[in-house]
Amino acid sequence: MNVFYPLRCIFAKSLPPSKTAVRRSLHSSKSLRARPSPKFKSIKASDLGIVKNDKSSPRVTAENFPAYTESEKAELAKRYTPDQMAAIEAGEAAVDPQDLADQGAIRNDPMKIEYIDDLSEIHPVVDKPVRAPEENYDPNLRFKSEDELTEDLAKWVMNDLPDEPTRLDWMKFLDKTRLTVGKEEAELNPRSYLAPDLPKLDVLQPPTEDDEEIDPATRRLMRQTGYTHDEIKKINPKILIQHRVVNQTRLGKIQSLYFLAVAGNKKGLLGIGEGKSAESEDAMTQAKNKAIRNMQPIPMYEQRTIFGDVKGKVSGTAVELRTRPPGFGIRCQSLIYEMCRAAGLEDLSAKVTRSRNKMNTVKATLQALLSQRLPEDEARGRGRKLVDVRKVYYNGNT
Rounded to an integer, what distance in angstroms lies between the CA atom of residue 100 and that of residue 120? Predict the structure, then answer.
């Protein structure tokens, strides 16, 4: 043991604590002392002229909060009960106007409102919309009966119908005829607490299909499938497999690129397509367009999984798809996972046996999904009637 260790401990305890700020060892920012000081001093907003001086802004005094006059109290009595009026008067007497003048502050920043809100003016942006008066409300308002509407029509035919009536006369009659019995204001200008509709703005219409420049391949796909250009845009095909192939001819080896794509609308449609060309862009376009054109409906149970366990086999590749309960997810390899996402399946597990060839795996998966046997077909083949027992045991709740 070192002889100086006890002395070093004693002197260390007697030394005053260091004033240097403690830094965390893993902190990415610099300490306050290491940070560079700003080149320019801070300038106040009042010096720049952004805000006004307090002397130029209006002063709030007790005169800004006058008491209610007799006429104002009479108007309030029409809307409030006597108990509510007594509460209003007690609240006004409890608050001193001088306290409001002393404690009230008027904003002088650039975002302030351009007027003092005294509740006597209506601002179209800040204040609430203007509503019909409460006197327009009629609790006994009701719709006219069929006999009353027939009587109005008979009176119009006997008295006001011109010799040569036109469509305009009939429209005037419909506009002037009331459909309710009660106050006229309650029908023409009713009291409503709903917010008014948003104003309709002149929004630029999206360009139509004729205005856009659509490539010939997309136009051909639209004619073959019957989909519109917007519907084709919503489908997002994905390339699953790509590799280079070589064709041996008498002229030599001809190289080309091969792509396999999958497409689906995530609502039960799924298709695969293959494309091969010397240019990668052409091959990808061929594969995606063929995948959209080959989309077929996939049977789905509860819009989340498949009907029972199914199998598919292409060449030496065998695929087994199994149905799973809600919340299980998609647990399988990446190729089958992308196909399930494109089709809209949410709960499913899969197993690939024997060969792991990628192209055969995609084709075997599609074959298995299309080979599902529906309960209706099974019941029809057995000559039985299909009954959903869940509605019996769970009171219709699935």
Answer: 18
Q: Which two tokens stand for residue 101?
A: 């003048």
Read off the tokens for 310: 């199914």
**pLDDT of residue 139 exceeding 70:** yes
Identify whether the C-beta of residue 209 lies closer than 8 Å to the C-beta of residue 228: yes
Q: Catalogue the E-assigned strands of the chain.
A: 142-143, 180-181, 238-249, 252-264, 269-277, 296-297, 310-314, 317-323, 330-331, 348-354
- Predicted pLDDT of residue 363: 96
* DSSP helix/strand/coil, 43: coil
Cβ atoms within 10 Å, residue 322: 18
Q: Which are the contacts of 112, defined by CB distance < 8 A and separation ≥ 6?
A: 106
Q: Which among 372, 370, 377 has a CA at the least distance from the CA of 269? A: 370
- In this structure, the strands spanning 296-297 and 269-277 are antiparallel
Could you tell me which of 300, 307, 319 has the C-alpha nearest to residue 367?
A: 319
Nearest to residue 240, comparing CAs of 259, 264, 256, 257? 259
Per-residue pLDDT, averaged over 158-185, amounts to: 86
Distance (Å) of CA 153 to CA 71, 172, 175, 184 = 47, 12, 13, 19
Helix (H, G, I), strand (E, B) or coil at 352: strand
3-state secondary structure (DSSP) of residue 222: helix
Assigned token pair, 218: 């997309």
Q: Is this prediction's pTM over 0.70?
A: no
Closest CA to 350 of 359, 364, 342: 364
